[in-house]
Amino acid sequence: MTSVLEARALGKRYGRRWALRDCTVDVPAGHVVGLVGPNGAGKTTLLKLAGGQLEPTAGDITVLGGRPGATPAQLARVGFVAQDTPVYAGLTVADHLRLGERLNPRWDADVARERVARLGLGPGQRAGRLSGGQRAQLALTLGLAKRPELLILDEPVAALDPLARREFLQGLMEAVAEHEFSVLLSSHLVSDLERICDYLIVLVDSHVRVAGETERLLATHHRLTGPRRDPGRLPADQHVVSASHTDRQSTYVVRTDAPIHDPAWTVSRLSLEDLVLAHMDGPPAESRRAALEVQR
């Protein structure tokens, strides 16, 4: 599997505080990859390291086979849209497009102009007078017109209303279908990831808890509910992700490739949100082992 991003024991420290530590992850090419995890997991730090905005304190990272931000050519291959949809309030839409063309050697002026026109953004409108959704769309336009091989988006729709989120994500998916680039998108909104991502990475405390194609993850994760049972009595091929118990009942989320035939269990499938929450809440040792096996 070709990777657009590879990190090995990657770390970033600010003074005595590690924002990211001992992170190892592969991001596959040709996918829209959702990166999800709790606050403080290291998602934004990882993305900024990948975009060349930060230098690592420890470990190694390569993006598209090179060191992030090492050369202008390397920078030109990666697009980045941050959470605050960075645009310049005093500049017009046309100013942003001219600036993008000046700074990016792979700039596609036709893509930029056509997209701005389709969105109804007037060239003379100043960014500071645009709505939040319009600013996000302008930032996405700048990222797409750069014609990146990898587009990194860090919580790009966090502050948008549901309609603006839908329009942003629809525009992103149309661009992916047309231009065939890889995407790495972080978000707390699992429903948005479920809509557009075909690969998922759950990051907790800088470590990958699970990674894989979303369809396969959903097909191999199950909720088991039945009489109280010690996890040691479960079959060896059922890897426990999370567990809860009452006096009489046990509920497990397990990952397995094998059919579950035990009549004592009521078996149900998980939503993507259920799966994410189970790996975020589950015991680290079990989750890390499951993550490694899913990636093999």
TrEMBL record:
Domain ABC transporter: 5-230
InterPro entries in the record: AAA+_ATPase (IPR003593), ABC_transporter-like_ATP-bd (IPR003439), ABC_Transporter_VariousFunc (IPR051782), P-loop_NTPase (IPR027417)
One GO MF term attached to the UniProt entry: ATP hydrolysis activity
Keyword entries, A-Z: ATP-binding, Nucleotide-binding, Transport
One matching Pfam family: ABC_tran
Protein name: ABC transporter ATP-binding protein
Organism: Planomonospora parontospora
Lineage: Bacteria, Bacillati, Actinomycetota, Actinomycetes, Streptosporangiales
